[in-house]
Amino acid sequence: MSGDSQSFSVETSAPKQSHDITELVREVVRAAGKTSGLCHVMVLHSTAAIVVNETDDPSIGTDIQKALDRAVPDHAGWLHDRIDDNAHSHIKAAILGPSESLPVRDGDLVLGTWQRIILMEFDGPRSRRIHVQLLG
Predict the structure, then answer these.
(1) What are phi and psi of 73, to 5 degrees?
(2) pLDDT range class, residue 2, cuts 50, 70, 90
(3) Which residue, 17, 69, 92, 136, is the most exposed by fewest CB within 10 angstroms?
C-alpha cells in the first residue's frame, strides 16, 4: 500500500459478468486506518465499469447486463468493431462509468443494507485492475 491508495486485480471468468468487490475495497479502507472521508473506486479499463447495487440476488447483475444488451447490442454496425470487435463493451462501460465514490465513517464503507460495489465486466474474461483512493 502506498499512502492512501492501493490497486488490486480481479480475474473475471466470462465475457459478461458482475463481480462483487466490496470486501476487497473494505480491506483497503481498513488497512489504511482512515476513520472518515471518501473512498474512490475506479476500474482502470475502458470495457468494464464500477457500480453500486445489490448482489444478494445475483439475478440483478444478470438483469443489468440484459438491459444493457438490449440498449447496446453486440456487433450492431459499431465503427469500432472494425478495429477491435468490442465496441458494445466500450459503450456499456461509458454509460455506467468507471468509478464510484463512497463515504467512509468509523473506519468502514457507508453502504445501504443491500448495496455492494460491483465490477461490471463487458469484454472478458480478463484480469482487471481496480484502484482505490482514500480522501480526507
Answers:
(1) -65, 150
(2) very low
(3) 136
The identity of residue 108, as a single letter, is: D
User: How far, in Å, CA of 5 to CA of 83, rounded?
Assistant: 34
Every domain of the chain and the residues it spans:
5-135
Residue written as grid cell 473475471? 12
State yes or no: pLDDT of 1 exceeds 50: no
Q: To the nearest 10°, report the CA torsion of 72, 74, 78, 80.
A: 110
Closest by alpha carbon to 124, among 41, 48, 55, 44?
48
Q: Is the pLDDT of residue 13 over 90?
A: yes
Q: Describe the strand order of the beta sheet including 5-11 as a list of residue ranges.
A: 5-11, 127-135, 36-43, 99-105, 108-109
* CATH class label, 5-135: mainly beta
